[in-house]
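quick one, 178 residues, struct below
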Amino acid sequence: MEKDDSQLAEWYNAISGSYDELYGEEQSSKYETVLGFLGTGHFRVIIDIGCGTGTFLEKAHEIYDHAIGIDLSPKMLRIAMKRKTANTDYVLASSNSLPIKNASSDFTVSISTAKAGSNLPSFIADIRRIGRKDSLLAFTLFQDPGLPNPESLAKPVRSTIISDRETLYFLRIADALE
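---
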């Protein structure tokens, strides 16, 4: 059974104090893979959906002018804000309803938030909405290994399996999302 946003927020609030200790190494490996993909790129605006404790934005701070971290857990966001990452703002919101204006992101990242299933097309549509035409997207998707790319990703995309349940996708919004 999938958890709704309030259940997820409760769960992340409960583990927020130990999240980095529990999942930091695993998540850091994913962040390094994304940063390696980006190479020497520089972005005006990065949006991190499901930013958690703000670790990715802290690691990526040199490659952006401004960033917005979005998370549904107030306690995770408090930890992120304590990092005091320059030029970074945080917003309490769900990945199911992004309070970001259209065409505002040069690079959108979402690590360990999306699941293959019924809400994936709306998640992808919202990411497409907030991204500029030439923007990049990196996101992980929880799905059974070996499954084909989701139908929401109509054209070929670059992907890599990062665990027995999670695949990392890299793509240009204009080219790959339909």
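The chain has one domain: 5-176.
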